[in-house]
Amino acid sequence: MIEPKDGAVRRAVAPVICYSVSDLPQPNLGLYLNAAEGAVLVAKATAAPREAACIEVPAGSFLRITSVEGPQVGDLNLFNAGDLSEQFYSGKTRALHGTHVTTGDRLWSSFPHLRPMATIVADTLGWYGIDEYGGSVHDVIGTRCDPYTGRLLRGSDYHNCCHSNLTRAFADYLGLSLADAEPYIHDVLNVFMCTGFTRDTGQYFMKASPVRPDDYIEFFAEIDLLAVMSACPGGDCGSEHTSDSAPCHPLQMSVRTPSPLVLEGWSSPMPNAYSGSHGRV
Predict the structure, then answer these.
(1) Are 167 and 185 in contact (CB under 8 A)?
(2) Cα–Cα distance measured from residue 237 to residue 231, given in angstroms and rounded to the nearest whole number
């Protein structure tokens, strides 16, 4: 294809950031960190290798996801525990905060709610930044490994991918059939996963995660949450992510609750104030 004469000029146009983070309601990290100091462990759940687990996180509590035994990445779904139609919205989170999230960033919910579901208050991999390949950790760009793409690319079925893991765990926890549970499973936060896009072809890539045992990411629950976490069959995702070949390890979810006095005056964010009229009176 022949490049037009003004091709270089068109490429040189400076980019414009779509959404200014400075315009977002900012979390009170000082309040959250103060509350975290005295928070008490109230519940635990472990996602076994190539499986998933569920845990409920009351509003005002902390959810910590920890790598145990060995390097492991996980796929996280979040729901409003009282209204499963309100789910984590990875695409809008990406548009607001970027391709990867860390301390101070928030996980936003789906339309028409569009409010913070959780705020990241601690991240032991926050030091990683962006590497020479353009890779970083905790991405909101990947979807989740799934059996449909496996069938499309390889012509075979693999059932311990994250989509299936999340579906089984969600179904079992709520007493649903797999058919009824699957439509709720949505794009994920890829916890601990190190990913980016290649510079030459723009393809989504993964590389071995820098996560090590005892590394964790911790969230403050802005609303009552149901968290579903899959321990990805890719292990640290340094080779492949949809097979039994990679060494895999468990991921632990723990819920800690602070004293109500510490959060005095705090309340869950209200759903988005948009009228829902969509231009019709």
Answers:
(1) yes
(2) 11
Residue 99's contacts (CB-CB under 8 Å, 6 or more residues apart) are 136, 139, 140, 141, 196
Retrieve residue 115's tokens.
Answer: 């409010």
The answer to whether the CB of 58 falls within 8 A of the CB of 224 is yes
Q: CA 103, 106, 112: angle at the middle one, nearest 5?
A: 175
Are 257 and 238 spatial neighbours (Cβ–Cβ below 8 Å)?
A: no
The closest alpha carbon to 211, from 66, 99, 104, belongs to 66
pTM, 2 dp: 0.96
Residues facing residue 107 across a β-bridge: 118
Stated as kind and residue range, the H or E segment containing 164 is helix 162-174
Could you tell me how far CA 152 lies from the centroid of its own chain?
25
Q: Where are the domains of the chain?
A: 45-55+68-74+127-212+232-258
Please determine, for residue 281, whether its predicted confidence score (pLDDT) is greater than 90.
no
Residues paired with residue 197 on neighbouring β-strands, in sequence order: 204
Indicate the length of the chain as a whole number: 281
Question: How do residues 109-128 score in pLDDT, each as one tens digit?
Answer: 999 999 999 999 999 999 99
